[in-house]
C-alpha cells in the first residue's frame, strides 16, 4: 500500500523533488532536538528563564 504511494511520489526522475524531502528532514531533526533539549532542562533553569522578562534592566552609559 505505502510502496505504491511512495513509488508515485518519489519515482520521478526530476532531481528537484529531493529538496522538499531534505527540507522536511532538516525541520524534523531541528524540531526534535529543540524539544529534547527543552525537556532535559531542570525546573530551576526554566524558572530562571521565565523570570528574564521581569528582571530589572541595566543601564549602560
User: How big is the Rg?
Assistant: 22 Å
Distance between the termini: 68 Å
Describe the biggest sheet? none
Q: Judging from the principal axes of the Cα atoms, what is the shape? A: elongated
Q: How many strands appear in the DSSP assignment?
A: 0
Overall mean pLDDT score? 81
Number of helices: 3
Low-confidence stretches: none
Query: Percent range for helical residues?
Result: 55-70%
Order of helices and strands: HHH
Structural class given helices, strands, pairing? mainly alpha
Strand content: under 5%
Key features?
single chain; 61 residues; 66% helix
Summarize the structure.
Helices cover 66% and strands 0% of the residues. By secondary structure, the chain is mainly alpha-helical.
Amino acid at each position: 500500500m505505502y510502496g505504491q504511494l511512495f513509488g508515485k511520489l518519489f519515482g520521478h526522475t526530476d532531481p528537484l523533488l529531493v529538496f522538499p524531502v531534505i527540507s522536511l528532514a532538516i525541520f524534523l531533526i531541528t524540531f526534535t532536538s529543540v524539544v529534547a533539549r527543552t525537556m532535559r532542562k531542570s525546573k530551576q533553569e526554566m524558572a530562571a528563564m521565565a523570570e528574564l522578562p521581569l528582571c530589572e534592566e541595566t543601564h549602560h552609559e
